[in-house]
Amino acid sequence: MVNTVTLIGHVGQDPEAKEFPSGSVVVNLSVATNRTWKDKDGEQQKETTWHKVVAFNGTAKFIAEWVKKGDQLYVTGRIQNRTYEDKDGKTMYVSEIMAYRVQKLGKVENVSEGGAPVDIGPVTGDVGEDDIPF
Fold first, then answer.
1. Most buried one in 8, 28, 106, 121, CB count within 10 A?
2. Position 134 in a domain
3. Where residue 107 sits, what CATH number does that domain have?
4. Is this structure's pTM higher than 0.85?
5. CA distances to 8, 32, 72 from 45, in Å
6. Confidence check: pLDDT of 129 > 70
7. Tell me, what DSSP letter sits at residue 130?
């Protein structure tokens, strides 16, 4: 069986990182993908889909350090569905992309000691075997 998702989209808000007492790190972010087509009248239509993305440890640290709202990302992961009860006891359903590889697309710059930007090329956060929390 295969459960693999690949997304190219833009980050909707700055990622939220959380570190646990055990040293594990988790990051949550939203990524928007767009689909465009022409309707029966020849008018261009656009649909945006928002994806909840979760990453752990090495990949999470990469995202926390390098990714911000508006950045374009290439995300590879798997779909995970889960349920939880909200404060009113209602069952809520969530689908998330559990990211194990994230690459920031476009020009990535880092500031040198002298303050001048230095192009450091594409930056990738890959999960290693020790980064998987389960």
1. 28
2. no
3. 2.40.50.140
4. no
5. 19, 16, 21
6. no
7. G
